[in-house]
Design goal:
Layout (H helix, E strand, L loop, with lengths): L3 H4 L8 H15 L7 E2 L1 H8 L3 H13 L3 E4 L3 E4 L4 H25 L2 H19 L6 H16 L2 H20 L4 H19 L3 H19 L5
Length: 222
Amino acid sequence: MVRKDWAEQLPVVKSKADLVYESLRKAIAQGDIAPGERVNMDELARTLGVSKIPIREAVKRLEADGLVVSRVHSGVTVATIDVTEMRGVFLAREAIEALIARLAAEHVTEGLLADLESAQDAMRDALGAGEVVRLPELNSQFHRALALAGGYRILGELTEQLLMTVRRFRITAPMDAGNWRQVVAEHDAILDALRRRDPQAAEDAARTHISSQAAHEVDTDT
């Protein structure tokens, strides 16, 4: 039997398909390949210096993630996101992030609080400098750190998946500086509750944050 502590020391070796998958996933998240845009498999293989086999394997994984759509006559395109789907995404985020915030208030460490404050400070600085393009990734960093403070890997994975969908939606419906200022203020409320180790206040602040963004971005009352 292989000892667990020894096995955990082994390096993670990524295949070409893994690297292609990660590269494409990042490009889709950042909007380098826009929703509805066709993915040129031949050009991608040449650019990344790989054969079509790892490209096809990566595309299958992306299709399972719902990030691309493969059709017989039109090839592979980046999946689009409609408002109806986004309403569901925000409903899921509200439930999950409220739970995460409650758990985080019960278990957060000074180190994780520092990570959250660092992400929040970076968002405030970017907003003050008018660098709105940096805000989506900084916002993702804040929510990743919050999920980590929640203490459960599955909640982190769900958060990452939902953040990816939100970021892709915002490529076609970008947020303005005023809304980003509101996001920063709402993050402050979550942080304040975490510093006080107040689970109910943290849960309430997280719900308010997500429902506020949903109302702004997808008009959930219609």
